[in-house]
Design goal:
The structure is a single chain. The chain is mostly beta strands. 1% of the residues lie in helices and 46% in strands. It has 6 domains: 198 residues, Immunoglobulin-like; 80 residues, Immunoglobulin-like (Sandwich), CATH 2.60.40; 63 residues, no CATH class; 63 residues, no CATH class; 67 residues, Immunoglobulin-like, CATH 2.60.40; 80 residues, Immunoglobulin-like, CATH 2.60.40. The protein has a 6-stranded mixed β-sheet, with no helix packed on it. Strands 18, 21, 22, 24, 25 and 26 form a 6-stranded mixed β-sheet that branches. The longest helix is centred in the first third of the chain and has 8 residues.
Length: 715
C-alpha cells in the first residue's frame, strides 16, 4: 500500500531571498509523471514532478527540461533554488493542473503544445547549453505505457519513491494512490504533484521486556523500531503515559505503578503495537520484632517477622545481655527488597521474672493458645497451653527462668467462649429477569455463594449462606435459599377481518390473563386497527413480548339499483339492475342481479348484496306505475338518442343534454304546455318546481325530426 506523506506543505518559491550552499551531493530525480490523463482531445493535465532527494539545496539556473530529444521544454534562466526534500512541478497547463489537483502553488509551465507521448517518451533533465558535446544529463527516464497500466489513460499518474532504487526501472514505478476528488470522463483523477508517495515499511526490532523491582527504584522500558516519521505513545493498561520516546522511564516506582505496559508506534505507514509486558513492583517489607524479659544470665531469642531474612545488630538473634539492651533489626523479602523500617527488640533483664499471660475470646469448638511472657518457662493449670474450653474458663500460669528464677506472681488467662450462630434464610420465587433479595438472619454478617445478596438467576437456583457473629464466630450450619425462577410467558394472538359495523373477538394464548390495548377483547373498529396484547402467567409474570392483533375492516359494498324505465304503464315490464356486489337477493326471493317487474301500482323493491369480502348491504328502488290514460304510447320514443333528461323522476329540477340546437316543448298528461323554448346544443336546467306532481312529456324537435320522453315530477 502506498501512503501519502502527511503534514508537509511543499511550495515552489519563485523568488528565494536566502542564499543556499550549493553542493554536488544533492540528487535531482523524476518522481512522478502524468503522461496520459483521462481527458478527451487535450493533454492539459499532463505534468512532471522533479524531487531533490539530497541533503543540500540546488540552484537550477542553467538547467533544462526536455523530452522527445534534447529540445528544451523549460529552461531556468535565473537563480531557482530547490531545497532538500522539495519539488519542482512542470505542467503543460499550469492553471489546469493547479485547479484540478487542489494545489497551493502554481506549477512551472513548459512550452505550449508540447505534450508527453502516450506510448512512451524519454524525459531528461540536463545542464549546460543545448549541445550534444557539452550537455550533462542529471536524470533521465524512458518510460513506457506498459509500466503502469492504470496510468495509460485510466486516470492515474506514475509515482517513484527515491528509496526504492533506480527510477529507470519499470518495477520501481507504481500507480498513484492519491485521489484528487475529480471525475474526468467518468474516471477518478489520481495524482500527487508536489507530494512524495513512497511505500511504507515499519517494524519493531526489539520488544520491551517485563521488569520486576523493589519500590523506590527506577524502571526503564525501551523498544527499537525501524521506520520513517516515528512517534511513540506508551500505555499503562489502556491509559496513555510517558512522552514521545522509544524509552519509558518510571522513577521511584510505587505499588500503583505495577501494571501491564505497551507502546503504540505511529509512522507515515500506520500504527504498530508492541508486546504487552508487566511491571512487577515488589513491596518493601515492614519488619516487626519481639521484645521480652529474662533473668540476669539467661538468653533471649530475637524473633523478627514481616520479611524473609533478617539482619540483627551485633550479628546474633539469640542474646544474653546483662543489662537491658536494645537490638535493631532489618529484613529483606524473597525478592531481595530491604525493609523500609528498622525494628527494635528491647530485652529487659530482670532479677526475677514477672509473669504475664494473654487472655482472649474464641468461638465454641476452636482452640486458644495461652502465651505467657516475662519468664523462660511456664506452668499452666491443666497442663496445656493450647486449650479448647466449651465454656468461659480461667487458667493460672506461673513462670520460671532458665536460671531458676521463679515468678513472684501467678498470672491468670481468662478464655471467653462465644457460641456459634445458627443461620436461617428466606426462599422465594421470581419472574425471569427480576431480582431477589436474600435475607438471612441469626448472625451479624453473612457470606452468600456467588458473593451477592441481590440476585437475578435465569433458572431456579439454590444459594448457600453462612453467617458470622459479632464475635467473629462462623455459623455451625449452612442455610440454603432456593429461588424459583418462573418463565415469562410468550403471547400469541389471532388476527382477522370484519365487515364495517361488525365486531371481532381478540383471542390471545400463551398466558393466564391478558391486557389488550383499549381495554376490550371484543372490538368493532371502523377502520383497520392493530391491538397490542400482553399476558400474565399464573405466577404473575408478564410476557416478554407484545403480540399484535390486526383487525382488517372491510367497507360495506355500495349497492345501487337502476331501472330500465323509471315510469311504466300498467301491464308493462321494467328491468331492475343491481350493482356493487357479487351476489344479490331481492325481496322477491330472486337471486340474480337483474329482475323483471310488472307491478300494477307504484312499488318499492329491496335488494341485499354481498361483496367478495362477504360484507353485505342493501338498496331500495321505487318503480313508478301509471295507468297511462289518453296517452299515445306509440308516439313516445324513449330510447331516441337526440336528447337525454335526468334525474328522472325528479323533485322538479331536470338536466337536459341536447345533441343539437332544438325546440323543447313540455306538456302535462292533458296535453297542456308548461315549457316552450329554444335551446342550444349542450346541457341546460329545466325548472318544473312550480308544477304539480305527475307525468309530463318533453318533446324535442329539430327540422323534421322529433323525439319525446316521459318525465315524472315527484316533490
Amino acid at each position: 500500500m502506498k501512503h501519502r506523506l502527511k503534514n508537509v506543505t511543499y511550495k515552489i518559491a519563485i523568488v528565494i531571498a536566502l542564499v543556499f550552499s550549493i553542493q554536488t551531493k544533492a540528487q535531482l530525480v523524476f518522481t512522478e509523471i502524468m503522461f496520459n490523463p483521462p481527458e478527451s482531445g487535450t493533454d492539459s493535465l499532463e505534468y512532471i514532478e522533479l524531487y531533490n532527494s539530497g541533503s543540500t539545496s540546488i540552484d537550477l539556473n542553467g538547467y533544462n527540461l526536455a523530452f522527445g530529444g534534447l529540445v528544451s521544454r523549460y529552461t531556468f534562466t535565473t537563480s531557482y533554488i530547490v531545497a532538500p526534500a522539495s519539488f519542482v512541478v512542470f505542467a503543460v497547463n499550469a492553471n489546469a493542473v493547479k485547479r484540478n489537483f487542489g494545489l497551493l502553488f502554481t506549477p512551472l509551465q513548459w512550452n505550449a503544445g508540447a505534450g508527453l507521448g502516450n506510448s512512451g517518451t524519454n524525459i531528461k533533465l540536463f545542464s549546460g547549453p543545448v549541445s550534444t558535446s557539452s550537455v550533462t544529463i542529471v536524470d533521465s527516464v524512458l518510460y513506457s505505457n506498459t509500466w503502469v497500466s492504470s496510468a495509460a489513460g485510466l486516470g492515474t499518474s506514475m509515482s517513484f519513491c527515491p528509496s526504492s532504487g533506480n527510477n529507470s526501472l519499470s518495477t520501481n514505478w507504481f500507480s498513484s494512490a492519491v485521489n484528487s476528488g475529480k471525475i474526468i470522463n467518468s474516471l477518478p483523477l489520481y495524482g500527487s504533484p508536489g507530494t512524495l508517495e513512497c511505500p511504507c515499511t515499519m517494524s519493531i526490532v526489539s520488544q520491551p521486556s517485563s521488569i520486576s523491582l523493589c519500590e523506590g527504584n527506577t524502571a526503564v522500558f525501551t523498544t527499537s523500531v525501524t521506520g520513517v516519521g516515528l512517534s511513540y505513545q506508551w500505555k499503562k493498561g489502556t491509559v496513555n503515559v510517558g512522552v514521545d520516546s522509544p524509552t519509558l522511564t518510571l522513577s521511584s516506582v510505587v505499588s500503583s505503578d505495577a501494571s501491564n505496559y505497551s507502546v503504540v508506534i505511529t509512522s507515515t505507514c500506520g500504527t504498530l503495537s508492541s508486546n504487552t509486558v508487566a511491571l512487577v513492583v515488589n513491596a518493601l517489607p515492614t519488619v516487626s520484632v519481639n521484645t521480652g524479659a529474662i533473668c540476669n544470665g539467661n538468653s533471649f531469642t530475637i524473633t523478627p517477622s514481616g520479611a524473609s531474612s533478617y539482619t540483627v545488630s551485633g550479628g546474633l538473634s539469640i542474646v544474653n545481655p546483662s543489662v537491658t539492651t536494645s537490638y535493631s533489626v532489618t529484613g529483606a523479602s524473597t525478592a531481595g527488597c530491604v525493609s523500609s523500617n528498622t525494628a527494635v527488640s528491647t530485652v529487659t533483664v530482670n532479677a526475677l521474672p514477672t509473669v504475664s499471660v494473654n487472655t482472649g475470646a474464641i468461638c465454641n469448638g476452636n482452640s486458644f493458645t495461652i502465651t505467657p511472657s516475662g519468664a523462660s518457662s511456664y506452668t499452666v493449670s491443666g497442663g496445656l497451653s493450647v486449650v479448647n474450653p466449651s465454656v468461659t474458663t480461667s487458667y493460672s500460669v506461673t513462670g520460671t527462668s532458665t536460671a531458676g528464677c521463679v515468678s513472684s506472681n501467678t498470672a491468670v488467662s481468662t478464655i471467653t467462649v462465644n457460641a456459634l450462630p445458627t443461620v436461617s434464610v428466606n426462599t422465594g420465587a421470581i419472574c425471569n429477569g427480576n431480582s431477589f433479595t436474600i435475607t438471612p438472619s441469626g448472625a451479624s454478617s453473612y457470606t452468600v455463594s456467588g458473593g451477592l445478596s441481590v440476585v437475578n438467576p435465569s433458572v431456579t437456583t439454590s444459594y448457600s449462606v453462612t453467617g458470622t457473629s459479632t464475635a467473629g464466630c462462623v455459623s455451625s450450619n449452612t442455610a440454603v435459599s432456593t429461588i424459583t425462577v418462573n418463565a415469562l410467558p410468550t403471547v400469541s394472538v389471532n388476527t382477522g377481518a370484519i365487515c364495517n359495523g361488525n365486531s371481532f373477538t381478540i383471542t390471545p394464548s400463551g398466558a393466564s390473563s391478558y391486557t389488550v390495548s383499549g381495554g376490550l377483547s371484543v372490538v368493532n373498529p371502523s377502520v383497520t386497527t392493530s391491538y397490542s396484547v400482553t399476558g400474565t402467567s399464573t405466577a404473575g409474570c408478564v410476557s416478554s413480548n407484545t403480540a399484535v392483533s390486526t383487525v382488517t375492516v372491510n367497507a360495506l359494498p355500495i349497492i345501487t339499483i337502476a331501472s330500465s324505465s323509471s315510469l311504466i304503464c300498467i301491464g308493462q315490464t321494467a328491468n331492475l339492475t343491481a350493482s356493487g356486489a357479487v351476489s344479490y337477493t331481492w325481496n322477491t326471493s330472486v337471486t340474480t342481479s337483474v329482475i323483471a317487474v310488472s307491478p300494477t301500482v307504484t312499488t318499492t323493491y329491496t335488494v341485499n348484496g354481498i361483496d367478495a369480502n362477504g360484507c353485505s348491504n342493501f338498496a331500495t328502488a321505487t318503480q313508478n306505475v301509471s295507468v297511462c290514460t289518453n296517452l299515445e304510447d306509440a308516439f313516445i320514443n324513449i330510447q331516441n338518442s337526440l336528447f337525454n333528461v335526468y334525474p328522472n323522476p325528479s323533485n322538479g329540477i331536470f338536466t337536459i343534454e341536447l345533441a343539437a340546437d332544438v325546440k323543447v316543448i313540455i306538456t302535462n298528461a292533458l296535453g297542456q304546455e308548461v315549457v316552450n323554448n329554444n335551446y342550444t346544443e349542450g346541457k341546460h336546467l329545466l325548472h318544473l318546481q312550480d308544477v304539480a306532481n305527475g307525468i309530463y312529456f318533453v318533446k324535442v324537435s329539430v327540422g323534421n325530426t322529433q323525439s319525446t320522453k316521459r318525465l315524472v315530477v315527484n316533490k
